[in-house]
Design brief:
Helices cover 28% and strands 21% of the residues. The protein is an alpha+beta fold. The strands form four sheets. Strands 2, 3, 4, 7, 9, 10, 11, 12 and 13 form a nine-stranded antiparallel beta sheet that branches. A hairpin with a 4-residue loop joins strand 14 and strand 15. Helix 3 crosses helix 4.
Length: 364
């Protein structure tokens, strides 16, 4: 029997390929009209403004430095002047976010793998998962992705406290519309409304068809439009750029993402495709702390950077531990763990082992 070793080159291409989300402003009454005139929706522009704020950060000075009370008062009373980007609804009461999504298949084939025996075993396990009628793995994953589209999770802060949120999904000449507030964000249970159930199932089937392709030639393609009624003049939230040096963008303390930045006539506020993708794959409620932390985005270590947490360290079901047990040791994971492993492959990424790790195992 061949002893399998982890490949030093192993990668999967992402199977949920989404575009940036374009942000436009208009009026709620125009949201679902299939023949909407394009000029009813105006691109949201990023505008810079300088603000005179106050100093509110924690003071880290020593007790000795605080002895000069007059100086302390003078320092904290100084204005905190900042230049920031801002985006708002200046052409109506409703935000429209639109993006496209391609769902790719050929899941059982890694993009790259330099260990033929390992690849053969891995391909076999993934194929078994896809074909398992009892497990219905792709059905369950597709349904979770569909729910995250239909509930507008990808809107992030733009969804919070909106008066109404409608999601429109288009594919193959069909159109489905969802009231996002009728679909729970705290779990992946079926909504009680039978009509909503039927629509979710139809959307999930489209996603599954893309994931289930074994030829590498077919894919599913959907267009998503989200309409969020926030109110005239309300602030909206494009993605924020990560700047290593403030001077890169003229010393701004906050820079928002926009397409066609150099052309004022064509510029438009947008959400990063990565931010939208992160929301779509927020389906991992199989981790050990899900009762308290809820669903998180599928990641090899369950990392949630804005919380400073990793919910899947080695001892609690990290991707690599589960994968090694399955492929190298022949220990079939629990059903939920299999769903998680497949969701990581759908996420895509480089999962190679280090060369020195392989050498150590060879010596043993």
């Amino acid at each position: 029997m061949t002893t399998l070793t982890n490949p030093t080159l192993l990668s999967f291409e992402g199977k949920l390929v989404c575009s940036d989300g374009l942000m436009m402003a208009g009026n709620w009454k125009d949201k679902i009209d299939k023949l909407v005139e394009p000029n009813r929706w105006k691109p949201i522009k990023i505008q810079s403004k300088s603000v005179r704020g106050t100093i509110s950060n924690r003071d880290e000075r020593s007790d000795e430095e605080h002895n000069d009370h007059a100086k302390f008062i003078k320092d904290i009373a100084n204005p905190n002047i900042q230049t920031v980007d801002n985006a708002a609804l200046r052409h109506g009461d409703t935000l429209k976010v639109s993006f496209t999504l391609r769902i790719l298949g050929n899941l059982a084939q890694p993009y790259a793998c330099n260990e033929p025996d390992y690849k053969k075993e891995l391909t076999s396990k993934i194929t078994e998962y896809i074909k398992d009628e009892k497990l219905k793995g792709l059905d369950k994953l597709a349904m979770r992705y569909a729910i995250n589209i239909a509930n507008g999770r990808f809107l992030w802060r733009n969804r919070v406290c909106a008066e109404s949120v409608i999601i429109i999904v288009k594919f193959s000449g069909e159109q489905l519309d969802f009231d996002a507030y009728k679909i729970d964000m705290d779990n992946f249970d079926w909504p009680e409304d039978k009509v909503v159930q039927a629509k979710l199932k139809e959307l999930a089937n489209v996603i599954k068809e893309g994931l289930a392709d074994t030829t590498g030639e077919l894919f599913s393609f959907i267009e998503v439009e989200a309409f969020t009624k926030l109110g005239n003049g309300q602030t909206v939230y494009p993605s924020q750029e990560m700047l290593m040096e403030k001077s890169d963008k003229g010393g701004k303390s906050k820079t928002l993402y926009q397409l066609n930045e150099g052309d004022p006539d064509k510029s438009i506020a947008a959400m990063h495709s990565q931010k939208i993708g992160n929301a779509l794959r927020t389906i991992d409620d199989w981790h050990s702390e899900a009762d308290e932390a809820g669903a998180i985005a599928v990641e090899p270590y369950g990392s949630v950077t804005n919380r400073g947490e990793a919910y899947r360290p080695k001892s609690k079901g990290a991707f690599y531990t589960l994968l090694d047990n399955w492929i190298l040791k022949g220990k079939t994971p629990a059903e939920d763990e299999q769903h998680y492993i497949m969701a990581v492959f759908i996420r895509g990424g480089v999962f190679s082992a280090q060369k020195d790790e392989k050498e150590k195992k060879a010596k043993k």
